[in-house]
TrEMBL record:
<dbReference type="InterPro" id="IPR050678">
    <property type="entry name" value="DNA_Partitioning_ATPase"/>
</dbReference>
<dbReference type="Pfam" id="PF01656">
    <property type="entry name" value="CbiA"/>
</dbReference>
<dbReference type="InterPro" id="IPR002586">
    <property type="entry name" value="CobQ/CobB/MinD/ParA_Nub-bd_dom"/>
</dbReference>
<protein>
    <submittedName>
        <fullName>ParA family protein</fullName>
    </submittedName>
</protein>
<feature type="domain" description="CobQ/CobB/MinD/ParA nucleotide binding">
    <location>
        <begin position="24"/>
        <end position="94"/>
    </location>
</feature>
<dbReference type="InterPro" id="IPR027417">
    <property type="entry name" value="P-loop_NTPase"/>
</dbReference>
């Protein structure tokens, strides 16, 4: 981890009322479902909503860190945790809390290696899946591991890269997941604004603030925030 980070300097940091650090991981044992895309845009949306955010890239692939390197303004700090630093994740998060981070968003690799250790102490796990049976079935091992870690009330699947409505298949998967109490809402529709935002080092709420994509991301952050606040104490 680079203690300087690639983001905000203390002089320009927006101040936030002191409070405990909350940690949101974006994780699922399946590649390409939108973990990095959602982690980046949720980090920005949360910062716009008043959080003091650090986005941490736990994926050796480094996609989130690459996005952070493109950013020109430092409203969100972006840093990496290397595979050999994973054992110190709790200490790293403690340091961020001391430095005033109120929300850490962890982007993780699309594999199970080291996932459980990374997720043990998080406040919430968002699991992006595309509305397809293969993605939803592939999410089960992650889901079971999280339940085993006591995170049953602190996880949700979000349907991402959904076709524009009406989509009976998407609605059917949403209904199934909602009935199980594990659906984050709203679902996120496949829109090029997400791709263009990430390509320019922006969150979608910065890239296209008035767009439907931005509205969905803001609403998803609001949903996650409320869910964490409502979750029983651990
Ligand atoms: N809602 C969306 N609309 C349009 N494109 C999207 C959306 N979400 C993700 N994508 C695209 O899907 C691809 C995979 O997204 P992303 O890299 O965020 O997934 P990932 O889960 O982080 O992948 P990996 O497992 O490799 O880390 C990218 O090309 C991204 O631009
Ligand atoms: Mg990724």
């Amino acid at each position: 981890m680079d203690p300087e980070g690639s983001g905000r300097s203390p002089d320009t940091a927006p101040r936030h009322a002191a409070g405990p650090l909350r940690v949101v991981a974006v994780a699922v044992q399946k590649g390409g479902t939108g973990k990095t895309t959602l982690a980046a845009s949720l980090a920005i949306a949360a910062a716009e909503a008043g959080e003091h955010v650090t986005a941490l890239d736990l994926d050796p692939q480094g996609s989130l860190a690459g996005w952070g390197a493109l950013r020109k303004e430092g409203s969100v700090a972006v840093d990496r945790v290397r595979p050999w630093e994973m054992g110190q994740l709790a200490e790293i998060l403690g340091l961020l809390a001391e430095q005033g981070t109120t929300l850490a968003i962890l982007d993780t690799a699309g594999s199970s290696a080291g996932l459980a250790a990374a997720l043990r102490d998080v406040d919430f796990v968002l699991m992006p899946v595309r509305p397809s049976r293969l993605d939803i079935v592939a999410a089960r091992p992650t889901l079971q591991a999280l339940v085993g870690l006591g995170l049953r009330d602190r996880l949700a699947l979000v349907l991402n890269q959904c076709p524009p409505p009406p989509s009976p298949r998407t609605s059917a998967y949403a209904a199934q997941l909602r009935a199980l109490g594990v659906l984050a809402e709203p679902g996120i529709i496949h829109r090029v604004d997400h791709q263009d935002a990430l390509a320019t080092g922006l969150g979608v709420t910065e890239y296209a603030p008035g767009s439907p994509a931005a509205g969905e991301i803001r609403a998803l952050w609001t949903w996650i925030d409320a869910k964490m606040r409502a979750a029983p104490a651990r």
